[in-house]
Automatic annotation (TrEMBL):
Listed name of the protein: SAM pointed domain-containing Ets transcription factor
Region described as Disordered: spans on this chain: 79-111
Protein's organism: Perca flavescens
Function: May function as an androgen-independent transactivator of the prostate-specific antigen (PSA) promoter. Binds to 5'-GGAT-3' DNA sequences. May play a role in the regulation of the prostate gland and/or prostate cancer development. Acts as a transcriptional activator for SERPINB5 promoter.
A Gene Ontology term for the protein's cellular component: nucleus
Recorded family membership: Belongs to the ETS family.
SMART domains: ETS, SAM_PNT
Subcellular location: Nucleus
Amino acid sequence: MSMGSPGCEHTGCTAPLHSPLYISQTHTDTMAWLDEADDIKPPRSLLGLPELSWPGVYLPCYDRLALEESPWVLRMTEAPAPAAPPSSTPEPNQAKPNQPQDPPSGTEGQVEERCLEQVQTMVVGEVLKDVDTACKLLNIAPDPMDWSSMHVQKWLLWTEHLHKLPQVSMMFQELSGKDLCSMTEADFRQRSSQFGDMLYAHLDIWRSAAAMKERCPPEDSKSADDNSWSDVMRNYPSQPIHLWQFLRDLLLKPHNYSRCIRWLNKEKGIFKIEDSALVARLWGMRKNRPAMNYDKLSRSIRQYYKKGIIRKPDVSRRLVYQFVNPV
DNA sequence: TAGCAGGAATTAC
DNA sequence: GTAATTCCTGCTA
């Protein structure tokens, strides 16, 4: 990753590559994500774009955040550049939709701008939701300034896991959230020359999200996948959490956690643990049980058999369980 | 070998 | 008291 990159040559935006929110033209992985993300994806037709050529919208979901060598970057927290220069003789009601080679008319430009704004809003919402989920799962405050050194370690371990980083948390021991926030990017790079900038960027995301939450609290943070059975999850981070709730929370965030746990049949509540070690480690992090493993976690799941919360499906398969009362 | 099932004791809240 | 953890034996794919 080249941290000294000037930013977007197309838009002239000079935002650094690690800006919390940015658009990438080439992020094919995100394209796949967008194809899957039916719950937040605006219709491509609404954006006036052909199928599969939506300008790459980078959503910083925590297992998708990857920094690129030379992405087309646009800082989303800043006003996007106009899609096209305004027409010298604007005729908003006389658009010619059958001439695709023409530059967009004023109306089309406004529509595109509105669409971009919608995408921005959507992206920011996703960031807030992802941060919120991580807070729940880690039992930490959303604002890094409030973190103790243990919270910092949790966050670092979490980030290591989600981005498959080597152990970087060792480099940041004994640091509180305030310490972390007072560090410059250079300080981060000094502690981890290879991943310091990436961690700094992640911290920046969290700080931005905390600031955004402070500015516009939180009635719109109700996500589309919220529902009655997740109400009990809303009182984080101070509330204890049951294992079944934790699993369900992971399942309700397939964009982030599908590589470790996913629904096989959501209607029937059947799910599969794809990465037992990772799920166990996440659970251990959440409960401050560093010795947690899948053997112990699965024993806890089996305790649910008697309680009628989780059971094995009728056709029993390894690592597959079923909520007795699905959504 | 990893996962599954369940007993029993212990721990944390 | 409850939920979860820890440790265990034995079984299965």
